[in-house]
Write a structure and sequence with these properties.
This protein has twelve helices and nine strands.
């Protein structure tokens, strides 16, 4: 059953759409190779979310006035997809020229615009491009749009064959030069980013401690964006490189959460089912901030409130019953 708990205080804004696209959106160009090695190009724009947040994408579809909604039950996800070229030209491209993307997404968008400009005079379906040089140029732009790709090595070899290249030759991809943040980030764009890759959590430790925390995760090329967001949040928290592929902005000081994060989120609400996580995070954070020292009743109340708040407790170290036993045990030790 799909949960549909809409934040009734939320008003969809273009900045929010841009922020959600920054995290959960994809700007890409598919490459189609026919049996006789003709190459066609299929530009597309999409946003993918958890199926519980389907209503968010439906609101965006209505706001932009184009695209379609596609459900994937197996992955429990939903996509908002725009592939009609007139919609890409007349709606999507003008929208993101006004409401800016950042870092790798801006790099992808600029290449996307160049590809669309090259293809716009062709037929409305798959676009076959004449001339080996034009094909190669478009292929390079399409492959350069996203550093992370699900294309397998065999696929790259097929593309080279279709271009008349030797398999051991390399395609000179276009590097991302969008390193610095050139445009100011609006508060609603930050809210959209948080609704995509933000996390509000309540942790329960093996020694009976309860903490809350807030984080935003991004690829390593988007660290300047995390720095810009941290600057907007009065420079509270820290940015840590978790792996070679991504970094995370963390805030877990209770004073920082109550004095900076909560006021920002209350003024710049989010829309997805993550809004429910935020409400629980806020309630627990205020309890921790105001009470300082929790008794057993307080801890059991928080456990009941927050244990299932994110992924139904699947990522918890202990079961709910085990946490209850831990809390009772630690209370006896006092």
């Amino acid at each position: 059953m799909i949960k549909n708990q809409i934040n009734l205080n939320f008003q969809l804004t273009p900045g929010y759409i841009a922020g959600l696209t920054q995290t959960d959106g994809s700007i890409s160009c598919g490459i189609v190779i026919s049996n006789n090695n003709n190459i066609s190009f299929v530009p597309s724009f999409n946003i993918t979310m958890d199926l519980d947040s389907k209503y968010v994408l439906e609101a965006i579809q209505k706001y932009l006035g184009c695209g379609r909604i596609q459900i994937n039950i197996n992955n429990y996800t939903v996509d908002y997809i725009v592939t009609v070229r007139s919609d890409l030209i007349n709606i999507i491209i003008p929208f993101f020229k006004e409401y800016k993307l950042f870092g790798p997404k801006l790099h992808a968008f600029k290449l996307f615009v160049k590809i669309i400009e090259t293809l716009k005079d062709g037929p409305k379906s798959l676009t076959r491009v004449r001339g080996a040089d034009n094909k190669k140029e478009l292929v390079i732009m399409a492959l350069s749009m996203n550093k992370t790709t699900f294309r397998k090595e065999e696929r790259f070899q097929d593309i080279k064959v279709a271009l008349g290249m030797k398999k051991d030759n390399k395609l000179p991809l276009i590097p991302n030069m969008e390193i610095s943040i050139e445009h100011e980030i609006s508060n609603d764009t930050i809210a959209g980013i948080i609704d995509g890759d933000g996390s509000f959590w309540v942790s329960f430790s093996a020694i009976g401690q309860i903490r809350t925390g807030f984080s935003i995760t991004a690829d390593v090329a988007s660290v300047p964006l995390l720095n810009a967001i941290r600057n907007r949040f009065n420079n509270v928290g820290s940015i840590l490189s978790k792996k070679i592929t991504y970094s995370t902005y963390y805030v877990h000081g209770i004073n920082q959460i109550v004095e900076t994060i909560i006021p920002f989120m209350d003024k710049n609400p989010i829309f997805s089912e993550r809004a429910n996580h935020y409400n629980i995070f806020k309630e627990v954070s205020l309890i921790l901030y105001n009470k300082k020292s929790l008794n057993l009743e307080d801890k059991l109340f928080i456990l009941d409130l927050a244990y299932d708040s994110n992924k139904n407790g699947k990522r918890r170290r202990f079961s709910k019953e085990e946490y209850i036993n831990i809390l009772h045990s630690k209370n006896k030790d006092k």
